[in-house]
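Fold Annotation — chain and its backbone
Next Lines — sequence and tokenised fold

***
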Amino acid sequence: MASLTAVASMLEKGRSPRPAAPERRDPGRRVGQQTLVFRTRPRIVAAAAVAGPKEGQGPLGAYWDRTYRDRLLGERSWERAERRMCLDAAVLALEKAGLEPADIDLLLAGDLMNQLTCANFTAAELDIPFLGLFAACATWAASLGLAAMATDAGYATRVLCTTSSHHDTAERQYRFPTELGNQRPATSQWTATGAAAAVLAAAGTPLPQGWESANGPAGASPQGSESGSGGKAGQPAAGRPGSAPRGPGAGGRPRRAVAVTHATFGRVIDMGLTDPFDMGSAMAPAAADTIRQHLQDTGRRPGDYDLIVTGDLARYGHQLLVELLREQGYDAEGVLADCGLMLYDASQGVYAGGSGTACSGMVTAGYLLRRMEQGDLRRVLLVCTGCLHSTTTYKQGDTLPTVAHAVALEVDDAAAAGRAGDGGNGSPAAGVRPGGRGGDPA
């Protein structure tokens, strides 16, 4: 790769205002060059995350709604196991929201399998109007941003977003048969086994009981019941973070609704890298490009967010992102975190860290949203990163095109509290330091 300064200069290309751009009919819905503003603040009314056994043993293991004891889940193939995880996450999110599939206007879902087969089978089970999405590991942010667009514009009242990945299905499709036990370089990453789901609702839609928004506690109480299996396998459900989807939060406090306020959809960045075992380094320039564009469009600084969380850059990509942002004039090291570094402990043998479409989805649905609902975090920029190659293209010697999509998540009373620009007082949970984790090379 070229020097960091050269990379930063290349990312500057094409960033001057486009003189021929047509005048926008409703400029309030868009700021700068790439950022959409959701003025009605669509809310995430429920979310769920389910995890494989390795993810259940990680630092966030207590936050999952369900942890499976093995990677097959009793199914006859890993592909079927992933489909079951995706369906379980969707059903759990619907139950938390007190909704049935018939209450959802649109399902947005994606995964890493060819032809999005996991998402397709899940959609067939749920029987909801469906759009399959592929942005590799950036699919989760793409779905949240598109769901916010649909609900903000009035095209949908409620949208369900799901994503999933499985270590063994990804290995079989993208790399080598797992039975071979091929050695990997230190820069490789471990595809997360799990799934996530979230329900977005238009403004004015009743919140589940025990939640509050900028307009005060919810007055409506949708019907529904919690699935009883939550949390890490082998532990009692009561008292664990993953087992309290509705009702008051920690200490009897009302749970705060989280709104999706902005989306910055990234452009495809290809720096000429060809090593599929170093995707973190390949995706870091895309993350830097989208983060910088979001900050320029909104006039915000990194400190205006409690956290800026990338999807799966892992150890080497995360370090590169810090340097690239610094080259572009942004010192974000104090607020930068990466889901691939938060998902696993250094002792778990996951090389540079986690990856996969479920990686950012699980951390968001299981951990970040819960911390926001409890008031520990108030404004988070989620930047999911995706490597868009296929096994055919990289075996033919082609480069790795990448993309990063960002959505801004804010506690629904953040604007009313007038805290814009104050940098926030939230911090990651104890033991989950931004950028501070990563698996040792095996």
